[in-house]
Design a protein that fits this description.
This protein is mainly alpha-helical. The protein is 63% helix and 6% strand. It starts with 12 loop residues before the first helix and ends in a 26-residue tail after the last helix.
Length: 455
């Protein structure tokens, strides 16, 4: 079993002296109470020490519990408190969820960059591609116009004259009109003129068709050539990206990696805290086992303390059950040992006060300190029945033979109700009688206003 040192005591003198110098109403609420507002863990730590038990075990549990609560609180803050997360430049988020998405996005951008080439002349190629596209549009417009002209000329060339001079003469003969030779000659000249005109027109149109055909061929060749350039440039643009996009991608990855590192800090903090919490819980479990082993090893001592308390209690209430039990507290708190002093109650007045009286005598008789006196106010016996009061003074007289001075304030009206033996005992042991007859009969022999604590 672990060896403990009993040299270093971290209690204040006030904490110890108030166990034997009870003052104010608060100190008489229960046998454990001595200082108003004192935590149970601190109270029981002092009591453990004064009972002669190993109070280092109490300190150890307090420290472990405080460490556990501190780490649990810090873990909660790391997961939910915006002010904590703002220290790392992140908002309220699920760390694991956020990290998974950031890592996925980094990998996606890196894969995209790996499958792309970046060109410094990307913008120039893009501008040239737009120019080629515009040229192709212009050529297609010109081609459309030439094709329209081609169709119009072709249609004009296929048109024929269905009425000739012979047809005209036959029409006029049918209606009985004869052409003279001069008229016929004139009409023949007109017909020949128009035939010559049509022939020349057709020759001109055929020349136009030939030129249009040549122009269309030239345009088609140019469009084909430009389309090849266009497709080549588009393929380049598809396979490449602008250098500024590369820079933007790098910056985006850098930004994501900064966020990733900050989240990893929080994640690592959470992992460390969880690991630390689990380790503390193991230490607490080990401490619980150690404390129980310790109690088992001093069973004779704790039983002696219990018997001492019972013997005092039986002096007052022979037929009531009583005990002062010391047990290991393995609960989730800062209390190492439970100290439970009890006298079964049937509703009689003053039971709690008698428990306090017996308990205080058990403490001082352990003689852990050099304190050789004990003080109780009249509040201790205010609700106690006369018979128990008389027993209290008789028992006190017997216990004071252990070179312990007992001091109690008691009013004269209470003394008047005692039997003669008790009165004589009190009178024989009265050190000072205070009255308000004059200043000299007061405690200090002078008028002093010490004020009064309100409890």
């Amino acid at each position: 079993m672990k060896e403990f040192s009993k040299i270093s005591v971290d209690f204040s003198f006030r904490q110890i002296i108030n166990r034997f110098l009870r003052k104010g109403k608060t100190a008489y609420n229960t046998y454990l109470t001595s200082i108003k507002g004192e935590k149970d863990c601190n109270t029981l730590q002092v009591i453990t020490y004064l009972l002669g038990l190993e109070y280092e075990l109490c300190k150890e549990k307090i420290a472990l519990k405080q460490e556990l609560d501190g780490n649990i609180n810090l873990l909660k803050k790391s997961m939910t408190d915006p002010s904590f997360q703002s220290l790392f430049g992140i908002g309220k988020c699920d760390t694991d969820l956020e990290l998974s998405n950031i890592r996925f996005e980094i990998e996606r951008i890196e894969n995209e960059m790996a499958n792309k080439k970046y060109a410094e002349n990307y913008a120039d190629i893009q501008e040239k591609t737009n120019e080629i596209s515009d040229k192709i549009d212009d050529l297609n417009n010109k081609k459309f116009i030439l094709e329209s002209r081609w169709n119009a000329i072709t249609e004009a060339l296929t048109a024929t004259i269905n009425v000739n001079l012979q047809d005209v003469r036959e029409i006029y003969q049918k209606i009985g009109i004869e052409f003279n030779n001069n008229l016929i000659h004139s009409l023949e000249e007109v017909e020949n003129f128009h035939l010559t005109l049509i022939q020349k027109r057709n020759e001109t149109l055929n020349k136009d068709l030939l030129k249009i055909k040549t122009d269309l061929k030239t345009i088609d060749c140019k469009i084909t050539e430009l389309n090849e350039q266009l497709n080549e440039n588009l393929e380049f643009l598809r396979m490449h990206s602008a250098i500024d996009k590369y820079v933007a991608a790098i910056r985006q990855i850098d930004s994501l990696r900064v966020k990733e590192k900050e989240l990893e800090k929080v994640e690592n903090i959470e992992k460390d805290l969880k690991n630390r919490i689990e380790q503390i819980k193991k230490n607490i479990a080990s401490s619980n086992i150690q404390a129980q082993d310790y109690l088992d090893s001093i069973a004779i001592k704790t039983e002696t303390i219990n018997k001492t308390f019972i013997s005092f209690a039986k002096t007052f209430y022979a037929n009531k059950k009583s005990a002062l039990l010391i047990k290991n507290n393995d609960g989730d708190n800062q209390v190492r040992f439970n100290v439970d002093a009890r006298i079964t109650s049937d509703g009689s007045d003053g039971i709690q006060e008698i428990i306090t009286y017996c308990f205080d005598w058990v403490l001082i008789l352990q003689k852990v300190t050099n304190i050789g006196f004990m003080f109780h106010d009249s509040l201790l016996i205010a609700n106690v029945e006369n018979r128990q009061k008389e027993i209290l003074f008789e028992l006190t007289n017997s216990l004071c033979k252990n070179e312990i001075q007992y001091i109690i304030n008691i009013n004269q009206d209470q003394i008047n109700g005692f039997n003669s033996n008790t009165k004589n005992l009190i009178e024989e042991n009265t050190i000072l009688t205070l009255t308000d007859e004059n200043v000299s009969s007061k405690l200090l022999g002078i008028e002093v206003d010490l004020g009064r604590d309100v409890e």
